[in-house]
Amino acid sequence: MPKIEEQNSGADFLKSLGFPTLDVHETSTHFDFTTPGRRVLLIGPMGAGKTEKAAGIWRDAAVALKKSDAVSALTSTGIADRRRVFFIRYAADSVRFQDYPDDALPYRSGYIRCGSNIAKISDSFGLEQVIKDNPDVGTYIIDEASFFDERIAYVARNYSIERGCMFVFPTLMLNFRKEFFNSTARLILDMATDVIPLTAYCEHRDCLSPAFYTYRYYSVDGRECPALYFDPLIIIGGDRQKNSALAPDYAARCDRHHYLPGKEYTFFTLKPLGEEAGKGNPEGLVRELSLLKENPQASLLCKSLKKSYEKDPDRDIYMNAMLPSHLAEKAAAYLFCEQNMIGESLLVKLSYDLGLDTSYLEKTLVENRHPVSFSQGYLL
Description:
Elements: E1 3-4, H1 9-16, E2 39-43, H2 50-64, H3 69-75, E3 76-77, E4 80-90, E5 104-107, E6 110-113, E7 118-121, H4 124-133, E8 137-142, H5 151-163, E9 166-170, H6 183-191, E10 194-197, E11 200-201, E12 210-211, E13 213-220, E14 223-226, E15 249-253, H7 263-278, H8 283-294, H9 300-308, H10 315-319, H11 327-338, H12 344-354, H13 358-367
Parallel strand pairs: 1-10, 2-9, 2-10, 4-7, 4-8, 8-9
Antiparallel strand pairs: 3-4, 5-6, 11-12, 13-14, 13-15
């Protein structure tokens, strides 16, 4: 099982010096490069400081590298020295880094330069190549590892065991639905040796509670519009302010202020419609997608939200979920790439018959690892 870091040796130290009884919090320590084979998770919502913590590891490594050869014996397995750190970025997530140098490890309050020890990769095979090209590197920081294929968890585990390499994963464990981000996140947690949880303040204007969750919302005419449960799981480059009905914003939120409308609709209505469509009876799904596109207020989704939140004090916020664009496209993409309830040919046919935005669908499906080309029309 992964180890949750919560040791507090600082209390015993201060007691030995004669300090009075008081609340002593966990000591902030420099990073340990001596233990081989660690697989360290830095988890928390967006804005919790995961990447900044990773930058701290980089800075600690720079200090440790100035030590004598005697220290090298403690931090190395073979030629791989864990004080030598390499930063890995997800190749498709380039939008977040446009304002930084190509070799930057950026975080919200700044960045550090990584020089040649940084690479953009698309999958776990790319990670293997980076490791083979840099045999003297002992620590790999893999940003947003949940975006990668599941195999990356086993690549990290095997190299940590065989070469004593350390892997650090500043990544989201939970998605905006408050569920495990995906199977990659689940596997990374399974093989982790250490977990360092981070939190942030809830970013709701009236709250100072700790935030454990990442909240996705859209800003439409100045109104906060929570993302519906069936919103696309992955939206690349979505962590900067957009003020858009199409591109979301994110915030760290506590459970009280994390709004997630449409979950009941997804399981009670959308999935059954998708199941019937997959069996050859698409009429109900066609009718609902058409309403979501042309007249959302008449859709089963709108009726479900009104029923679910009729007496909720935050009813208006929940109902704002109807305001963002591309509701039909999101529903169709969810049924296709997350639930496998409708096939590619049916997805393409629905898109053309209903006049859905195929450019948006192509982008969304590529980001969620289910690419579909709509350029050739459809054959049924």
